[in-house]
Amino acid sequence: MAKKTVADVDVKGKKVLMRVDFNVPLDKELKITDDRRIVQALPTIRNVIDRGGRLILMSHLGRPKGGPDPKYSLKPCADHLSNLLGKPVTFTADCIGVDVEQTVGKMQDGDVVLLENLRFHPQEEKNDPHFAQQLAKLGDVYVNDAFGTAHREHASTFGAPQLMQGKPRVIGFLIQKELKFLGDAISNPVRPFVAILGGAKVSDKILVIEQLLDKADTLLIGGAMAYTFFLAQGKEVGKSLVERDKVDLARDLLKKSGSKIRLPVDTVVSDQMTDDAVTSVVQGSIPADQEGFDIGPKTSALYTEEIARAKTVIWNGPMGVFEKKPFQAGTRSVAQAVADVTRSNQATTIIGGGDSAAAIEVFGLADQVSHVSTGGGASLEFLEKGHFATLDILD
């Protein structure tokens, strides 16, 4: 997916309309608790302003219900970005309209404006043409550097760039990096290629599993989705979270996979999901009054061994409820194994955003892997499809 980047465009004196992903977590005082998404956009932002571009940033934050809501305002992001850049960032009270157009019209070379939350207008997610037109007319150049929303055909990611045909429409450095790592892993992996899939639902990952069966050498399965596979094998799962309507599908995937799919051989179980839960480890079926919450120590050892041989690793989804202490050992062991193989085997290791990214961060290993994706849903969809319509339309 060879795409022109912002570096290929002369931005001096031009209004550069850039979609970023500033969908960051805020606490009750509306302070940013994790600024990774803003920090990861800095190389593209600095590139534009250092070369005299007039930068107009647009993003969403959270899921406001049909109109403006102060707790989803991007104002804290504007203030934080201003501190990171060491220069003022102008914040507008809306993302479209006369006031926004006047603010943009007064910009000088190197200035930065951040527009208020796109999703304060329901038309953003509906890709409404009139709303898209109001965004499109703000810019001379369009840049998409929001990988986390690149799989969504919204007005800011799809409608606006379509309307800017004839003007430069390019990607930023963050999306360039995502495409390089994820694209190479799919199209040309160095082998052995190990995929690790966790999380709660098989249904969320069916298409990815089918794609990866053709491409990966081994698929390691963890999380609650493993229990649907257990049912397909005729095992009992107690009170564990399962998708009974997906058992036949899981059975088909196991048949199709030959020996590629590896399932847990033991499970950490308990009758409650709390920080002080009393746990035990079972092999095979899970007792009727118990629930599975993590892969067991034997599984951790087997998965670690498998990962240690890999040259390419993609990991999407935790092995258990890692947010609770009694159930974090499995996810921690996988995170450590992925970090170790990056160093010892010079493997390319990709963490597919979402909960896996949160886990690798919690365990302090994020800087010891090749790449941590900024989009959980986006990276999954890219693994399924290999492209996004929002990026297909760019130069």
Please explain how this structure is put together.
It contains 14 helices and 15 strands. It has a six-stranded parallel sheet, sandwiched between helices. A six-stranded parallel sheet has the order 9-8-7-13-14-15, with helices on both faces. With 395 residues, it is α/β, with parallel strands linked by helices.
Reconstruct the topology from this structure.
Blueprint: E1 15-19, H1 36-50, E2 54-58, H2 75-85, E3 90-91, H3 98-105, E4 112-114, H4 129-136, E5 141-144, H5 155-163, E6 169-171, H6 173-187, E7 193-197, H7 206-215, E8 218-221, H8 225-232, H9 247-257, E9 261-262, E10 266-270, E11 280-283, E12 291-295, H10 297-308, E13 312-316, H11 329-344, E14 348-351, H12 354-362, E15 371-372, H13 376-385, H14 389-392
Structure summary:
With 395 residues, the chain is α/β, with parallel strands linked by helices. It folds into 2 domains: 6-176, Rossmann fold (3-Layer(aba) Sandwich); 189-385, Phosphoglycerate kinase, N-terminal domain (Rossmann fold, 3-Layer(aba) Sandwich), CATH 3.40.50.1260. The chain is built from 14 helices and 15 strands.
Report strand %.
Answer: 5-15%
Radius of gyration: 23 Å
Helix content: 25-40%
How many domains?
2
**Shape designation:** elongated
